[in-house]
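Issue: ligand-bound run for dinuclear copper ion - logging full I/O for the record.

Environment: standard queue, default settings, no custom constraints.

Inputs:
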Amino acid sequence: MRRGSIVALLGLALIAGGVATAVALVPTWLPEDASQEAGRIAFTFWFVIAICIFIFAIVAAVMVYAVLRFRVQEDDFEDGPPIHGHTGLEITWTIIPFILVTSIAIVSAIVLSRNDAQAKDTLRVDVTAQQFTFTFSYPDAGNVTSPVLMLPKGRSVELYMRSLDVIHSVFVPQFSQKEDIVPGLVTQLHITPTRVGTFPLECTELCGLGHSLMRSQAVVMEPAAFDSWLKKQGKTAAPTSSTTTSTTSTTTTTSPSAAGLSVFNANGCSSCHTLSAANATGKVGPDLDNLVAYAKKANQPLEAFVHDSIVDPNAYIQPGYQKNVMPGTFGQSLTKSQLDAVVSFLVQSAQKSGNK
Ligand code: CUA
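Outputs:
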């Protein structure tokens, strides 16, 4: 091989590798890590990407070089020289991929086993999935339940997940952990959160009409804040109907309107409805800031109207909207206290926006 060809091949490989590296690095492909597991998954991802870029650079360089250098003349109809093979080359292109694929397998196996390894003080969270909502409960803390996955930062957490109806799947992109929830099985998922914050938690298995609405949140708190949240939840298991107005945080207060707001958010209501008290801007269903006017039109008291519209959405259809779009399952999937909380939250915010 001439020295010129090697330089040309090397140049082409550097260009191809550079372009591929830019495509890999410049856009933000992965969400920011928020768990130890996500860090290891990201390492595996970049390890594989690096190998891919290396192989891509070689293949692209040889291909472009061959196209340019060995192009046939227009009037050349000769067959190419008969080549039967090259033992050295074949051994090389068997051994190199073998080493690469084996190293990916080893790295993946180590990452998977570390990601599943629970610590001694692992926190247990039971997850119940049903069309179209998640419920999280904390059996070690007197079965406190929450529509949002509350987690302490830095603690090993194991989710024990069951489904009441069809196959669902739980996924928090920032945790890089995802697992199906299958009726009849208890599947497990291990998470060690590393960053305080609120992250989307979504169902990633097509589970029915409301699949796209089956969204909740994972809220990671400092351990002390988490402990006091758990204690507070344990005390106020049944929220009273006294009303304080707080729409700021679903995590640190347990007032009825905050509970209602978290039910509202956890059940995907905001995907379809507009409601200023929840910063919701959905356009699929009626605008819930106008509930007072709708109730008048339906000729019902506001509270009964809101309650019935959640439990039996087809009972009254606001002109301009269609039947059977809103899931009719909330009557079963919401507990009585969740239903009461979201009804009183909606009534309150409707009255407020009605007076404006
Ligand atoms: Cu549950 Cu999709």
